[in-house]
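Lecture notes, unit on binding sites. The following record was shown on slide 14. It pairs a sequence with NAP.
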Amino acid sequence: MTREPRVVIIGAGIAGIATAVTLQRAGFGDFTILEKGSDVGGVWHWNRYPGLTCDVPSQLYQFSFAPKPDWSGLFAPGAEIQRYLRDVVDGCGLGDRLLLNTEVVSATFSGTDWRVTTSGGVELEADFVIAATGVLHHPFTPDIPGLDTFAGDVVHTARWHDDTVTDGRRIAVIGTGSTGVQVVSALQPGAARISHLVRSPQWVMWAPMGLRQPAAVGRLLRKRPALHRKLYAVFLWGSGILADIATRPSWRRRLVQTYARWSLRTQVRNPELRDRLTPDYQPLCKRQVVSSSYYRAIRADNAEVVTAPIDRVTPRGIALSDGREIDVDLLVLATGFHTHNYMRPMRIRGRDGISLDDAWAKGPRAYRMTAIPGFPNLFTVLGPNSPTGSISLQYSSELTARYITQWLRRFRDGEVDTVEVTEEATAKFNDDAGQALGPTVWNTGCNSWYLTDEGNVDLWPYDRKTMTAMLSRPDYRDFHVQKGGGL
Ligand code: NAP
């Protein structure tokens, strides 16, 4: 007996697109991608703040199945990445499988299949649900007293309005992550004055972010796909070094950390400013910030770094705890995301009515990033413990999607009706991962978005080879499968 699995993929960002194309290539045709945004791209659709650039080299920041030879630079701007993702969707003919402006509000397992409900009241039935809902998804707005009394404009970087006027204005930027650093660098030249409010300074490593890719390189790579594949493989191999540096203490880690310190020392000569910009934790502990322009921007005459804590926002600007008040026309919140929400606030109910909120009461947890006990036939792509700090997200998404297709194949062949990871296998994976996260640089004493509310590092602690081995073939001992009514 063969039957075509009905699949709902939630999210059309990198993970969702990788999943859809992988399913398509594996011969599965009955899938629907539900995307709440008005276009594909996930974070690359929602994020459009000035200066948005990916600090991962573009020749790596692409799918293995959709090589793009002609990126404009070594590090592509956000809009170019979004266009690339749109081109992949169009080029792979996914348009008629994609529903935009369609937000999923709930997904409920009936005992045999899933009922997925959208905010428009549409209900879809599916044999499998694949949540590719992303990590940098729900903007975090800090609870600063008086924020709602501010008389000027307030914008969160992840919800930038294209008509926001920045030139000639007094701008304050709160937040010192990759976003804050990029937006300050971009807004400083045109601003009347820019104040960067720095609660915790970040190590900012210099890299040639503005380096253009000559058009001839694009032409050559287009003509020689084998060479292009080799280049991609080299970048992938290079990213393995990054994973090693992050996960294991070594001279390589110390070397990179020395480079981060050197980047600060050589670009900020003023000892007082340098002192205020020096973090009290190791480089690489937080998501590393990379820039070629930030230190120059904040040294400009119209710029200042403010390290005094914010006391409150007033109608005119920001009152600091040292008694000073900064007058502000535009307040930019580069304050990041609720990074551990994953599929929530969707209401997800699995076997016996168990809710995801209850299952994750002590923090998000999955088996090998993709399966959750209590939730049969539901998989995540870039779920908990995903390697957002170390390994290519495109590689990880494609690998996970191929893993899932193996379950879809078994369903198609009538070997399983439902599949659910065991609690024991999930607990063992999480215990092992928790131990392996011990010596990682992310666990060296800083407060970062990698940490859950419970203080656990929510990242992948292993190298790419281990990830590939874990997700190449399902270990059937780790799953309950149901066939024809019996577990
Ligand atoms: P983030 O790294 O989480 O940074 C948030 C910032 O907001 C932190 O500096 C935080 O300070 C500050 N903050 C939060 N609440 C505050 C408050 N009440 N008062 C003062 N400061 C406050 O967020 P992000 O910069 O948006 O970056 C998130 C991730 O997106 C990055 O780590 C990266 O993975 C990704 N990203 C990538 C690129 C790229 O080029 N590839 C570009 C942008 C973003 P504390 O540190 O003190 O908490």
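Take-home: The chain has two domains: 7-138+338-482, 147-202+286-333.
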